[in-house]
Each structure stands twice: as structure tokens, then as C-alpha cells.
Fold:
Amino acid sequence: MLSFLKLKIKTAKRWIGAILEGQYFRFGLEPTLDRDFDWKQETSLSLPIFDSPLKEGKLHNLRIAIAHLQNRVLYPGRIFSFWYEIGNPTIQKGYKEGRVIRKGQVGKEIAGGLCQLSGIIYYLSLELGLTILERYPHSRDLYTEETRFTPLGTDASVVYPSKDLRILNSFSYPLLFEWELTDTKLTFRIRAIEPLKRQKLYFQQTDKNGYSNVLVFRESEPNGNPVLCSSDDYLL
Structure:
């Protein structure tokens, strides 16, 4: 009972904070019909899903979460909030155990594996130059370059309700989210009515005292000088 009350209090504080910051009433993807817009422009990102002991649980959890995001539109000035869309991922909602990283340790939890979903959204949003309002890195780097989903520094850890991923559509046109999931690949596609230009990301990594600091830069227009997007420390 105590943990349930703590969760309720944490959740209330998060949403009250979003209201006070002026974000809450701009949250929300909207449903769309194909006739609403001519979605002739698109870009996509695909990530591999590697074999692991908890892979089936991860795939199951991804399917449930993707259903909340499939064929949904982020209108100009609106904010995508991962947890506003997905809600509390509980066993009552069908979620299963999957792998997670908590306080630098690998474990398993209900709804584990959803960070690959938040990570692919963050990575593509970075390349497109959308405005990132909230994002958290993982505490530890567990991967080799061969097994990494995305470059180190482009991950997005999500923990309900305290760690969210929030992205503002700072473009003048709406964005349509589409998804494809197979046993080996996750694909995130963004479609629009105007051309979508992906910008190059640059990475600078320094290892010191058991941590790896990663700086992520994005090329900028019109002068082309890179802009610092994030600086994260990962336990090695």
C-alpha cells in the first residue's frame, strides 16, 4: 500500500509540475485519417533487436506500447510525452518482464525493454532538429560497438513517472508517427507535408575515473557550426 501511495504522489507531482511549467496542456498526439494531409515526405530509422534471454518479453512490451503511438500526429507547438501517451505500464495492462538498467545494474522488471522505443524516438528527433525538453541517459554503458542499438549518447532512459522523454514539435507543420516491429528490427517512420532534413551528429568521448563522458553535437544552419545537444556520463 505504501509503495502504491508513493507512486501516486510521484505521479501527481510530475503532472502538477508539467502544468506549472506550461507543458501539460500541450501534451498529446492526435489520431489522423489519410485524407487529413498529403503525407508525401518521410524519413525513417531502423534499429536491430538482438537475441537475449528476455527478448520475447521485450517484443511483447514494445507491441503494446507501439499501439498507443501508431498513426498518431504531433501538431506544431504540441509536446510528445512518452508517459503521457503510454501511461503507467503495469502487469494489469498486459506488460511482461523485460531487461532494464537501474542504478548501473542490469535486472528485469515489468515493461522492461521500452527504452529502445524511447531511444529511437530521441535519436531521430535529434537528427531532425526537434526541440528536446526532457531526456535522461542510462547510468551505465553495457554494450560493445557491435551490440549497441544507437551511438552512445543517443539513448533515452524512461522510468514511470519520474523520467520522461518530452519533445516539442518546433516545426510549422504536423508530424505523423508510424511504426514497424519484427522479431529482429524496430522501425520508426516520421511523415510530413514538408521536406524533412536530417542533420549530422558528431560525438566526442572521453574515458576517465571509471566513467565515459560523451558529448553529442548536431550540425547547425546557416553557419554549419556544431551545436552541443548533450553531455552524459556513463559508468563503464
